[in-house]
């Protein structure tokens, strides 16, 4: 009695795995988007936010009518300086990368956490537009009061980063200098008088 049930379950598992495998190997684009933002303080006291969104097609087919919209920057807090918060492209080939950058200037002080950007694209086998989201950004502390950098802080960072390289180069230069310059004792005093 258990034998027909097991045969039916095995047959169902085989059919289900074939369906899953055929669906997984179909030609579709797989869109991955990475959004990053960096703060840049100007001498005038203003602060600019540089936003870059990289869109990758990790799928096996081309995505068409790719559009990007990043509407997470409220106009009462930020103003667009260069570029725009939206862009569209004709297509994104399999394995291809698209990148979009824009710059904003902060109007008010505070912590801002942006939402993911929305990427819409079309695949030839489906009529509806497909949607993908970028990674969100970490919270930005815009126009924050930062303590002034200490005078030798940059020198300490450079020394910590490149100290060993500088010491090796200076030893090599000193060695080459000692080998290349003639000895002063070999000049006048080395001649023997007879």
Index terms:
alpha+beta; single chain; 10 strands; 2 helices; 194 residues; 4-stranded antiparallel beta sheet
Show the helix and strand layout.
Elements: H1 2-24, E1 31-41, E2 47-57, E3 63-69, E4 78-82, E5 86-92, E6 97-106, E7 110-112, E8 118-122, E9 130-133, E10 140-142, H2 153-180
Antiparallel strand pairs: 1-2, 2-6, 3-5, 3-8, 4-6, 7-10, 8-9
Structure description:
It is extended, with a radius of gyration of 31 Å. The N and C termini lie far apart (123 Å). A four-stranded antiparallel sheet has the order 1-2-6-4, with no helix packed on it. A four-stranded antiparallel sheet has the order 5-3-8-9, with no helix packed on it. Strands 7-10 form a two-stranded antiparallel sheet. It has two helices and ten strands. The mean pLDDT is 83. It is an alpha+beta fold.
In short:
By secondary structure, this protein is of the alpha+beta class.
Tell me the radius of gyration: 31 Å
Order of helices and strands: HEEEEEEEEEEH
Detail the poorly predicted runs.
Answer: none
What class, by secondary structure content?
alpha+beta
